[in-house]
Specification:
Blueprint: E1 2-4, H1 8-14, E2 20-22, H2 61-72, H3 75-83, H4 87-93, H5 98-108, E3 114-116, H6 123-134, E4 142-146, H7 151-157, H8 161-169, E5 172-176, H9 183-191, E6 198-200, H10 209-218, E7 224-226, H11 235-244, E8 250-252, H12 261-270, E9 276-278, H13 287-296, E10 302-304, E11 325-327, H14 336-346, E12 352-354, H15 365-372, E13 378-380, H16 388-395, E14 403-405, H17 414-422, E15 429-431, H18 440-449, E16 455-457, H19 466-475, E17 480-482, H20 489-502, E18 507-509
Parallel strand pairs: 3-4, 4-5, 5-6, 6-7, 7-8, 8-9, 9-10, 10-11, 11-12, 12-13, 13-14, 14-15, 15-16, 16-17, 17-18
Antiparallel strand pairs: 1-2
Helix pairs in contact: 3-5, 6-7, 9-10, 10-11, 11-12, 12-13, 14-15, 15-16, 16-17, 17-18, 18-19, 19-20
Length: 510
């Protein structure tokens, strides 16, 4: 039995999420549980928030009315409503009665294109995948899972006819933190998935160059791949992958510290469609990689070189005129003239620029950043030695910001920050952590100038008072507020209570 909200018809018409709850019900011995044992095998308590299996003494009048509302609708509405629900809720509703079980099997499951089992743990995740491979989910194209428990059902499916049929139609697999996945097992799995276009295997730390070679040999149509934190991966493996995947558009090799400049040069040379490259935390990436990117990477749109300390000559990226996002955070050797030379070529298209911890940059660069990047929406200059005049210069030409991080720019005051926020009324995300000199008047200015502000970090801004903070919450659209280190424990507790009264769903961190 299901309780449907009063505005059910409006929800259907407007395609908004539908909220339902399952009333208490006793499952009959011939109930529809066989196809859903993954919800029940491991721990019955894990689904008590969806179903309570204790039989009520009597059905309430409200439940009768709720059931009448539902059955009064034409049957096509039932299928339409069910398709608005998350897959997990639909599966649990199969337990309600035979009618819903048949309706979901016929109308809902055949349209399921993505299966995400990250909400399940241990045996539940394993059983969920096993269930999926036993059923004819003809529209399934994407599987997302994490943890070692998802490995066994994937490998088992490789030699079952039903499993093979599903694997062969997949175009995307995302397996996170599957530590037990080895090179030979990946080869076995990928052989059953010839149509993959997206393969993400972050934190699968046992994989080596052999896995990269396998990917290159078996997946010629691959467009996106993530090898994050494959600590054994080297440049040779990346080059082999690039050789076999000429259609590659997006690659992540963050944390692969054995991958260096030669591998990046091979990537941009062998993959002419490459539009996104991320290689964070690699000491092997040098300026020679930037030369190759400037020569062959003209199609690049996003580039992340975060914490690559040997990178300096970013002026080689001048020819990458399609770049929309650049992350140079932690590249301590990048100097102002080199950055400005880069921006003279790609600044017109840049939307996101992250310079967190680029201590080689001086504040005077900011004025040119605003002038050369008129469409900039995200700017991160955390930890730079900035003064008020630098922000005023930036404000003169930077007016489209949605996200701004000034954390640990400790010399800034309201005199510099207020003109900048006044010129950027669409600002939604602001980080002013450790700006010790700011006072309550700055919060008043934020409420006046940035009504759409939804996230604010004011950690360690100890001059702010609770009254000003609450007034800011009332005057903006804040949904996330970080206030640790602002007040003492007692006043923080009181502040949290007051904010929650004003904005019950605001996420607070203190």
């Amino acid at each position: 039995y299901i309780f449907i909200r009063e505005d059910i018809i409006g929800i259907c018409a407007n395609q908004r999420p539908l909220y339902v709850r399952l009333c208490k019900k006793n499952l009959s011995p011939n109930g529809c549980v066989s196809e859903l044992e993954f919800l029940l095998d491991s721990d019955i308590n894990s689904v008590k928030f969806l179903i309570d299996f204790k039989k009520p003494n009597r059905m309430s009048t409200a439940d009768d009315i709720a059931l009448d509302r539902l059955t009064a609708l034409p049957w096509p509405c039932h299928a339409h409503i069910l398709k608005l629900l998350p897959l997990r809720n639909c599966l649990v509703m199969c337990l309600v009665c035979k009618y819903f079980n048949q309706l979901i099997q016929k109308e809902v499951l055949q349209d399921v294109s993505m299966l995400d089992v990250n909400d399940f743990y241990g045996q539940q995740a394993s059983n969920c995948l096993s269930w999926a491979f036993r059923n004819k989910l003809t529209a399934l194209r994407k599987i997302t899972a994490s943890g070692h428990s998802c490995l066994e059902p994937l490998l088992t499916a490789c030699h079952l006819p039903a499993g093979q049929a599903i694997l062969s139609q997949l175009t995307s697999i995302h397996l996170d933190y599957v530590n037990q996945l080895r090179d030979n097992q990946l080869s076995y799995l990928l052989a059953a998935c010839p149509n993959l276009e997206v393969l993400a295997l972050p934190r699968c730390s046992k994989l080596t160059d052999a896995a990269a070679i396998t990917i290159g040999s078996l997946l010629p149509n691959l467009r996106e791949v993530s090898c994050r934190d494959w600590t054994a991966l080297t440049g040779g493996g990346v080059a082999a992958l690039a050789q076999g995947c000429p259609k590659l558009e997006d690659i992540t090799v963050d944390g692969c510290f054995r991958v260096g400049s030669e591998a990046l040069a091979a990537l941009v040379r062998l993959c002419p469609r490459l539009r996104r490259l991320s290689i964070a935390k690699s000491y092997g990436v040098t300026d020679s990689a930037l030369e190759a990117l400037g020569e062959h990477g003209v199609t690049l749109e996003e580039l992340c070189l975060r914490q690559c300390p040997r990178v300096a000559a970013v002026q080689h990226l001048t020819r990458c005129s399609r770049l929309t996002a650049v992350d140079l955070s932690g590249c301590v050797n990048v100097a102002g003239p080199n950055l400005l030379a880069m921006l003279s070529g790609c600044g017109a298209s840049l939307v996101s620029l992250q310079l967190n911890g680029c201590v080689g940059l001086r504040g005077e660069v900011l004025a040119a950043v605003g002038r050369l990047c008129p469409g900039l929406k995200l700017l991160n200059v955390r930890g730079l030695a900035l003064m008020d005049e630098h922000l005023r210069d930036l404000a003169a030409s930077c007016t489209n910001l949605r996200s701004l991080c000034l954390a640990w720019c400790t010399q800034l005051t309201e005199e510099g920050l207020r003109p900048l926020v006044a010129r950027n009324p669409e600002l939604e995300d602001l980080d002013i952590e450790a700006l010790y000199l700011l006072t309550d008047s700055m919060l008043t200015g934020l409420a006046e100038c940035t009504p759409r502000l939804s996230r604010l970090s004011m950690r360690m801004c100890h001059r702010f008072n609770p009254e000003a903070i609450v007034a800011l919450v009332e005057g903006t659209e804040l949904r996330s507020l970080l206030v640790s280190g602002v007040l003492d424990e007692a006043r923080t507790t009181d502040l949290v209570s007051r904010v929650r009264r004003v904005r019950p769903h605001c996420e607070l961190k203190w």
